[in-house]
Amino acid sequence: MIVGVLNQKGGVGKTTVAVNLAATFARAGRRVLLVDADPQGSAMAWSSTREAEPPFSIVGMAKPTLHRDLPRIAKDYDVVIIDGAPRVNDLGRSAILASDYVLIPVQPSPYDVWAAADTVALIREAQVMKETLRAAFVINRRIARTAIGRDAADALSQFEDVPVLAAALHQRVIYAESVARGLSVVEAAPSSEAAREVEALANEILAAPKRKAA
Ligand SMILES: Nc1ncnc2c1ncn2[C@@H]1O[C@H](COP(=O)(O)OP(=O)(O)OP(=O)(O)O)[C@@H](O)[C@H]1O
Ligand SMILES: [Mg+2]
């Protein structure tokens, strides 16, 4: 399964979600490849900060030919996670077409909700060619004990074909701290709330219903 963690908007948590999902799938015993499809190379930089080898393979492929190149490489893995680039349409299109499932991180802010329309438009365009392509939103940086996450989820329900997942990642210092150390939250704090919420996200993605080709 190829999971693209994509959003045309910058700074929403694509790399954070991608790295932590990759580590969580790897911890569950799956063969995982993380593809850094962002010319900024954030996921590659994360892996070079590490002392130990990452628990999954990682490769830099910021090319608009990703959808053609990736299927051949993906055969050797159970799960491939793409860390997408913001703002670049040809890379974004290619990463969407390469994916079986697009996960769109959004922060609980009206700006993120408004900007989501751009990414949804690219997904709908891709679904014309690839009918089985699935997509979902995940709320990232949800703030505990506030209604803002709920409000964002309600606002996102305007995109009827793209569900909001029940699993959400909260605003937690450990996400930023673990990245700085080249770690994932499941490595830095395996029994933390953060590790549990990423695990719930991974399980929800695996359980997502398939889309039938017409
Ligand atoms: N759930 C969270 N809790 C706390 N900090 C977070 C969380 N998610 C992301 N961050 C922080 O927000 C910043 C942006 O996150 P990240 O780099 O993952 O976003 P991005 O979408 O990959 O950005 P870009 O578009 O530049 O690639 C980082 O400093 C990261 O540590
Ligand atoms: Mg990034």
Kindly summarize this structure in a few lines:
The protein is 45% helix and 14% strand. The protein is an alpha/beta fold.
Outline the structure in words.
45% of the residues lie in helices and 14% in strands. It is of the alpha/beta class. The protein has a single domain, classed as Rossmann fold, CATH 3.40.50. Strand 2 (32-36), helix 2 and strand 3 form a beta-alpha-beta unit. Helix 3 packs parallel to helix 4 and helix 4 packs across helix 5. The longest helix has 20 residues, at 110-129. The chain starts with a strand and ends in a 7-residue tail after the last helix. The model has no long low-confidence stretch (mean pLDDT 95). The structure holds adenosine-5'-triphosphate and magnesium ion (MG). Adenosine-5'-triphosphate (ATP) binds next to helix 1 and helix 7.
| Quaternary structure state of the chains depicted | single chain
Q: How would you describe the shape?
A: globular
Largest beta-sheet details:
6 strands, parallel
Number of domains: 1
Please give the CATH class: Alpha Beta
- Indicate the percent of residues in helices: 40-55%
Would you give the CATH topology? Rossmann fold
Any low-confidence stretches, pLDDT <50, length ≥5?
none
> What is the radius of gyration computed over CA atoms, rounded to a whole number of angstroms?
16 Å
- For the termini, the CA-CA separation is 21 Å
The fraction of residues in strands falls at: 5-15%
Query: What is the succession of H and E elements?
Result: EHEHEHEHEHEHHHH
Would you tell me the overall average pLDDT?
A: 95
Strand order of the largest sheet: 3-2-4-1-5-6
CATH superfamily: P-loop containing nucleotide triphosphate hydrolases
Q: How many runs of DSSP E, i.e. beta strands?
A: 6
Level-2 CATH architecture = 3-Layer(aba) Sandwich
What class would the helix/strand composition place it in? alpha/beta
Q: List each distinct ligand once.
A: adenosine-5'-triphosphate, magnesium ion
Question: Tally the helices: what do you get?
Answer: 9
